[in-house]
Design goal:
- Helix 3 packs across helix 4 (90-102).
- This protein starts with a strand and ends with a helix.
- It has a nine-stranded mixed sheet with strand order 2-1-3-4-12-11-10-7-8. Strands 5-6-9 form a three-stranded mixed sheet, covered by helices on one side.
- With 231 residues, it is an alpha/beta fold.
- It is 31% helix and 23% strand.
């Protein structure tokens, strides 16, 4: 299989998280000598051949996407076939929707960016925007993300106006998905799948804190998981 990752989203060359995504990948490639092709793919062009050429997917910030259903299909395929899947900001939110629909059985689970008046809004507009803010995070001890950071806390940056609807927190904890990171108020900010080599979503945008000298640990772990899967 080609050592390639598909970055799913609507690429905007002036959007800071998209610029940071490209740069963070370069940081890891140089530091860890990982040769990976990174392809930006608009969500409307996702098709059944996506995983023929890509060993992992990064569901990027910048929603709403042009095709939500195709994006959810790609996330589900990666989850069910243990293909590395990393979702940041909007990607995290769509990982939640996919999980709610296809694992928890909430087939009408929806995102407020697409239909703000829908009844089953698993992703809702935040009462207070997190765009441009840096916040402290606490990770569950022993979780995959805590091991990746080698710490149970971190400070990360956000670019989002939407997050998980608190009314569904209890529901999300009923399945295999692990809530592995929260902010100081206990709001869910990181999820992972314990039976998957790399299925991690973050509401924050870790790539913005990556530097050539210190590649972000989450981006590094994701690319290493993709390289391993490709082999």
């Amino acid at each position: 299989m080609t050592k390639a990752i598909a970055i799913l989203g609507e690429y905007t060359p002036t959007f800071t998280p998209h610029i940071a995504t490209n740069e963070a990948i370069k940081h890891v490639q140089k530091s860890f000598d990982i040769t990976l092709i990174a392809d930006w793919i608009t969500t409307e062009e996702i098709d059944s051949k996506l995983f023929d050429q890509h060993a992992g997917i990064w569901v990027a910030p910048g929603s709403p996407y042009k095709n939500m259903e195709k994006t959810l299909w790609a996330i589900r395929y990666a989850r069910e076939n243990k293909i590395p899947c990393f979702g940041t900001c909007g990607g995290f939110q769509h990982m939640i929707i996919e999980y709610a629909r296809n694992v928890l059985g909430y087939h009408d689970a929806q995102h407020a960016e697409y239909d703000p008046y829908f009844s089953s809004l698993f992703i809702a507009q935040l009462d207070c925007s997190l765009a441009g803010r840096e916040l402290q995070l606490n990770f569950v001890s022993g979780s995959q993300v805590a091991k990746i950071y080698n710490s149970c806390s971190a400070t990360e940056q956000y670019y989002c106006n939407f997050g998980i609807n608190p009314n569904y927190y209890a529901v999300l904890r009923q399945g295999p998905l692990v809530i592995s990171g929260c902010d100081a108020e206990g709001e869910i900010r990181v999820i992972e799948h314990p039976e998957h080599p790399f299925f991690i979503g973050t509401l924050f945008v870790p790539q913005t804190r990556s530097t050539p000298e210190t590649p972000h640990p989450l981006v590094s772990a994701f690319l290493q998981a993709v390289a391993t899967h490709a082999r």
